[in-house]
Amino acid sequence: MQCPRCQGELRPEELKGIEVDRCASCHGLWLDYAELDQLEDRVLDDDHAKGSLMFRSFRSDLACPRCQQPMQAFNYRAYDLELDFCENQHGWWLDRGEEERVLQIMERRIKDLHRTGSAEQEWARFLQNTKSKSFLKKMRGLFR
User: Fold this and answer.
1) What is the pLDDT of residue 143?
2) Is the C-alpha dihedral spanning 4, 8, 9, 15 positive or negative?
3) Cβ atoms of 96 and 30 closer than 8 Å
4) How far apart are CA 73 and CA 92, in angstroms?
5) Helix-, strand-, coil-residue percentages of the chain, each rounded to 5
6) How many secondary structure helices (H) and strands (E) does the chain include?
């Protein structure tokens, strides 16, 4: 296969236990359709917790190395990381280093989920405490 970015040769290699195709020239990365999810799973394997992959897409300047059709681009999970994909579900193109950004975003997502979970627990405790007699007594005292 030819690289959609520079037309260099795509060579198979292993990335975190996944066989991917890397460009020998620009070091971009072609992931077959299921391989982006497999890469994300190295950090976060709960698909529901990952959130939406894309909100909207737009025409890319690249062509799919499998079918040669124009690809689409999108901002990955609403971050400032633009990835390209084949509408025929052949795969995803990641420029050099973007695979690390994907993993960083998944790690950030885990931290955000923990922070959200902690905030929800704190809010639930607060609401539970508002039902106590001592809390209601304090509140009445403020308005007298």
Assistant:
1) 76
2) negative
3) no
4) 9
5) 40, 25, 35
6) 4, 7
52 pLDDT tier (thresholds 50, 70, 90): confident
A 10 A CB-CB count for 94 gives: 24
Contact residues for 35 (Cβ-Cβ < 8 A; gap 6+):
18, 20, 91, 92
Ordered DSSP codes for 75-134: EGGGSS-EEEE-TTS-EEEE-TTHHHHHHHHHHHHHHHHHHHHHHHHHHHHHHHHHTSHH
Closest residue by Cα to residue 54 from 36, 38, 29, 68: 36
* Cβ-based neighbour number of residue 105 at 10 Å: 18
Tracing tokens 């007298």 back to the chain, one arrives at: 144
The model's pTM is 0.77
Residue 27 near residue 34, CB atoms below 8 Å? no
Q: Which helix (H) or strand (E) holds 21?
A: strand 18-23
pLDDT, residue 36, reads: 96
